[in-house]
Amino acid sequence: MSPAIKSFAFFLIAIALCSWHLDAGRNANTLSRSAMVAAIVEHRTLRIDAYHELTEDKALVDGHYYSEKAPLPALLVVPFWYAANRFGWITPGDHGILTEGLLRVGGFLCGSVPLALLSLIAYRRLRNSPLPLPRAWLALLPFLGSFLFVYSGSFHGHLLAALFLVVAWLMRRSSHHVLSAMAASAAVLCEYSLFVFPLAWLLQDLTQRRWKPLAAQIFGGLPGLLLLGFMNLLVTGSPLTLPYAEVAAHVNQSGGFLGLGTPAISGLHGLLFSNFRGLFSHAPATIICAIVALLAMRQQGWRWTLLHPLILPSVALVLIIAGHSMWWGGWAFGPRHLTSVAALLLIAGIPRLPDKPWADGALVWLTALGLCISLAAKATTWYSLPTDVVQPFREMILPQVLQRSFTESQWPVAVGFSPVMGTFLFVLAFIFGLRVLARSSSTA
Questions:
Q1: How many domains does one find in the chain?
Q2: pLDDT per residue over 112-169, tens digit each?
Q3: Range of the structural domain that residue 38 is part of
Q4: Less Cβ around it within 10 Å: N or C end of the chain?
Q5: What CA–CA distance (Å, rounded) separates 442 from 422?
Q6: Which pLDDT score is estimated for 252?
Q7: Rg of the chain on CA atoms, in Å
Q8: Distance between CA atoms of residues 224 and 179, nearest Å
Q9: Per residue, what are the HEC states of the chain?
């Protein structure tokens, strides 16, 4: 079997697992993006006045409502929903063409596909891995065993942003600086806080007087910057004012400008270590990847650390989110605002793991732990965890598993199966997919 066929087979299995569950829940975040898509397709406007009562995540400007989300995920879904509407494939509901189908299409394009592609990138990077495990398992299971899997199939922007950022980093490694800047600006247009990565890369090139890459980055990032300014102008009337600055309700911005403030110890602990929203408890395989990064920092020294394209901006992003007045991300599973950090840790870290017993054992056990947590959450609550639930797995997820209270947001349910049977079929598909991947990894 050729490498190309193996990669294609890997992607098919990954996309099947990542799109088994498609989110049609009435979440303020996903509905805000869906409202923007429906408004553009149905009313040829960015104003979501016709749908604004469905979501609290909105901006109010001059008496009109707009989505306050970073615009690129919605803009990418628009042509697909426009085509579906044009060919009469949409049955309008109580809210026009803002239907559960739109939520599912957005979840597939902005959640399922990006996670499958992130896993594929990891698979391609593990070609020369010395670890005595099937390469396909190493690439797929740490992602499925993390909070990233819980957001696949959901119309959020985090996984799409992580995909663009990973591509930007790989392009930078290959000295394709224009493409890197274009991908980085796309990531920012999916999640504003990721501006720290292209900013750090610009500063790194500036301090090293790398003028050619610096100019290429500025040139490559200009289209994205112009698009952001244009979208801001259409909504807020100023190219420099984000819609998020005009939120209509419920977002706590007491921390300062756009809710930002000084990083808090409680925020750092909560984002990294807590069972509430901790990165290392909701994506356990990142623990071993972080250890590898710390060992490399100790070995290479401070200069290497400061000039590394991932370490400095990742730390800066964690600090920024820890200083936000809503660092916990509202109703969420895991630190959703650190999705890109988790993806980068896994993709950059796992290929660098040494083939030693402690590393092999740690990766296996941490991945297994993550799979138990994420698969249980995906089968029950998804990310719908109230902010006052400080032990989400023990307080909500595990009880619902024991009660067999499984989610209806899976395609077998849509065709008539019960949620219990749909979950059983997913487990079978998961096991079958792993067996196929193991066999393909062992073939020459």
A1: 1
A2: 999 999 999 999 999 877 777 889 999 999 999 999 999 999 999 999 999 999 999 9
A3: 3-442
A4: C
A5: 30
A6: 47
A7: 21
A8: 12
A9: CCHHHHHHHHHHHHHHHHCCCCCCCCCHHHHHHHHHHHHHHHHCCCECCCCHHHCCCCEEECCEEECCCCCHHHHHHHHHHHHHHHCCCCCCECCECCCHHHHHHHHHHHHHHHHHHHHHHHHHHCCCCCCCCCHHHHHHHHHHCCHHHHHCCCCCCHHHHHHHHHHHHHHHHCCCHHHHHHHHHHHHHHCHHHHHHHHHHHHHHHHCCCHHHHHHHHHHHHHHHHHHHHHHHHHHCCCCCCHHHHECCCCCCCCCHHHECCCCHHHHHHHHCCCCCCHHHHCCHHHHHHHHHHHHHHHHCHHHHHHCCCHHHHHHHHHHHHCECCCCCCCCCCCHHHHHHHHHHHHHHHHHCCCCHHHHHHHHHHHHHHHHHHHHHHHCCCCCCCCCCCCHHHHHHHHHHHCCCCCCCCHHHHCCCCHHHHHHHHHHHHHHHHHHHHHHHHCC
What one-letter code names the amino acid at 376? A
- Token pair 């890369």 in the structure block, residue: 201
CA distance 356 to 245: 50
Q: What is the pLDDT of residue 355?
A: 82
What is the length of the chain?
A: 444
Is 440's pLDDT higher than 90? no
Whole-angstrom distance, CA of residue 276 vs CA of residue 253 = 21
